[in-house]
Structures are given as structure tokens and as C-alpha cells.
Amino acid sequence: MRYNLLQPGGPLVSVIGFGASALGNVFGDIPLSEGERAVHLAIDEGINFFDTSPYYGLTLSEQRLGAALEGRRDRVVLATKCGRYGVSAFNFSAKAVTQGFEESLRRLRTDYVDLLQVHDCEFGTVEQIVEETLPALVELRTAGKARLIGITGYQLENLRTIARQAAERGIRLDSVLSYCRYNLANTTMERELRPFAQAEGLGLISASPLHMGLLTKTGAPAWHPATSEARAACVRAAEYCTAQGVSIEELALRFCLDYPHVATTLVGMGTPEIVRANLRVLADKGNTQLAHEVMEILRAGGAETLWPSGLKQNWDPGTPNSEA
Ligand code: NAD
């Protein structure tokens, strides 16, 4: 395993991070023992960064991860989130995130997390997140209950605005996480978030190297926000890889692992089989030529198109208006 500093000053995190949303059964049901074995195998193989949220499986992911980490807590860098509690259930008030975090700690069977993040900031107002949510997280950091604090979301300009305004108010953030913004379908993180994060000394976390399941042979669940055109392009890309004797999952993850500017890439893993497949990718040389061909199939099919997420005032420029 290779490790990077999560942010200047540490801690060290594995380049492959364990995305625990899958333990909340969001990509399909995972038997209890399979999920637990996935966590144990990942730890034994050197994966030390684990990311969850009360939102994933409506607390199921945190419960299962907490149980699986019993006796192993000191071997992992544990991240969870606050502010999002359901598909449409958001509460970024100081009271909700502070009380919600205490419940997360109980489910995770620990008295601190290494990283506490505001989940999907674009669903709140910049004003509330900067003036109310983040000060509450600073208190939790000062109390030692969250070693580091960060923000997450899909809309990159919104994340930059929040981080900038927070800094103006003297709030030091530790990390920023975005998803589906650096993979074979879309690489806008490189232009729209990486230079900012680097300049501000923020740890950069990239999530969803498989575009939340679209860059797999089985495809994504019905809740995936991509357009039908983008979905069809991903199916064509997967078929093209299969015809070349390559697994699109492994090609897609390799592409992300070759990106040197992020501390870690979070991939959803719920079974030992998937953990093993993703560990194999670390040792793999990759196939740059094929990656470029697949990116072209995806680009021509419109797979890089952004989707609306959150309050409209927080959408990135160029987001198609689904209501139009
Ligand atoms: P992903 O791109 O990692 O795709 C996950 C899907 O791909 C799952 O169905 C998984 O079973 C499958 N998969 C993974 N490796 C595979 C392999 N080798 N072969 C076949 N299938 C494979 O998307 P994700 O799970 O949404 O993202 C990873 C993690 O990032 C999440 O679990 C979560 O921790 C984090 N995340 C955070 C946010 C946020 O904070 N707003 C948003 C998205 C994701």
C-alpha cells in the first residue's frame, strides 16, 4: 500500500480509501458477514482510511462500520459526516450537527473521529454553513472529538466559496472532498478544485472513481442522477473494455490512482471480493491508451455532463437546468 498525508501535518492515509456507503446497502444488499470481512481484509492489506456518514443507509453504514472496527479502531483514520440525514433530510444547524455527531460516535463505537465533514454543502446556504455549521465543527475539533474538519459536496465553486469565506472568518478547514469529479467520465476537479485546495493547504479527497457505479459492468442503481444519455455512454464504454479483455472497474480505478494530486481516492467496497479486486489494481501497470479511448467514448456520449444537486444558487456554472 502507498500512503499520502491527508493534509499538511498528517495523518497518513492509504491511496485507496474505503468508501463505506456500500455498507449501508445503497448499491444493493450486502450480507452482514461479507461487509465485516471486507473491512477486516482491507485493514489487513493496509487500507487505513474509512469514510462513512449517517446518511448512508440511514445510519446502517455507521452501525456496521462501528461493529467491524471493534478492536481495530486504532489502525484506521476514520471519517464521518454531518448535516445530511436522508435523501431530502438536511439540517446544518449547530444544534443538529453537534447532537447528530454524538449519535455518530455511539454508532461508530468510538469517542473521536479523525475527520468530521459537512455532508453535501450545496444543500445548505453558504451563509449558514460558514456562520453556524463550521463554527460548531471548530468547537468539536477544539474539544478533540474531531481531530480534523472538512467539507464535502458535488458543486466545486460552492466548496471554494465556503472554504474562502470560512478562511476570511478565521476558520481553518483541514480538507475538502468531492465526488464524480475526477474519473474517466469527468476530470473537472483538476481545473476547478485542485489548484485552490493546493493553494489553501487543504487535504484533497476524491470520491467515486467508478462514477458511483456507472463505470462498472453491472451499472449504477436507479437513484443515480446521470442522464440516460450518460448512462448509455457508460454501458458502451464498459462493453468496449470487455471486448479488449479489460475490466472497466480496474481501468477506471487505475486512472484515478495515477492522479498524484489527491491524498486518497475513496472507492465503494462492500465485499472481500471487491476489496481484493481493487487491491490488485495497485499492482497493475494500467493501460493509458485504452483509458484515453474510453474517455473519448464517454466524452462523445455526454457522460461528463454535470447534474443538478442542491440549492440552485449553489450549482456550478454550466449545470443543465433539469426543470427547463
Ligand atoms: P464508486 O465510484 O466508488 O462506485 C461504487 C460502486 O462500484 C459500488 O457498487 C461498488 O460495489 C462498485 N465497485 C467498486 N469496486 C469494484 C470492482 N473492482 N468491481 C466491480 N464493482 C466495483 O462510488 P461511491 O461508493 O459512491 O464512492 C465511494 C465513496 O466515496 C463512498 O462510499 C463515500 O464514502 C464517498 N462519497 C462521498 C460523497 C460525499 O461526501 N458527498 C459522495 C459520494 C461518495
Describe the 3D structure.
The chain is of the alpha/beta class. The protein has 11 helices and 10 strands. It has an 8-stranded parallel β-barrel, surrounded by 5 helices. Strands 1-2 form a two-stranded antiparallel ribbon. The longest helix is centred in the middle third of the chain and has 17 residues. The mean pLDDT is 96. Bound molecules: nicotinamide-adenine-dinucleotide. Nicotinamide-adenine-dinucleotide binds next to strand 7, strand 8, strand 10 and helix 10.
The global form is globular
Oligomer class: single chain
How many beta-strand elements?
Answer: 10
Protein structure class: alpha/beta
Q: Uncertain segments of ≥5 residues (pLDDT<50)?
A: none
**What's the arrangement of strands in the largest beta sheet?**
3-4-5-6-7-8-9-10
Distance between the terminal alpha carbons, to the nearest Å? 47 Å
Summarize the model shown:
The chain has 324 residues and is an alpha/beta fold. It has helices spanning 32-44, 60-68, 94-108, 126-142, 156-168, 188-192, 194-200, 228-243, 248-257, 272-283, 288-300, and strands spanning 3-5, 12-14, 16-19, 49-51, 77-82, 113-118, 146-153, 175-179, 203-207, 264-268.
SSE blueprint and pairings:
Blueprint: E1 3-5, E2 12-14, E3 16-19, H1 32-44, E4 49-51, H2 60-68, E5 77-82, H3 94-108, E6 113-118, H4 126-142, E7 146-153, H5 156-168, E8 175-179, H6 188-192, H7 194-200, E9 203-207, H8 228-243, H9 248-257, E10 264-268, H10 272-283, H11 288-300
Parallel strand pairs: 3-4, 3-10, 4-5, 5-6, 6-7, 7-8, 8-9, 9-10
Antiparallel strand pairs: 1-2
Bound molecules: nicotinamide-adenine-dinucleotide.
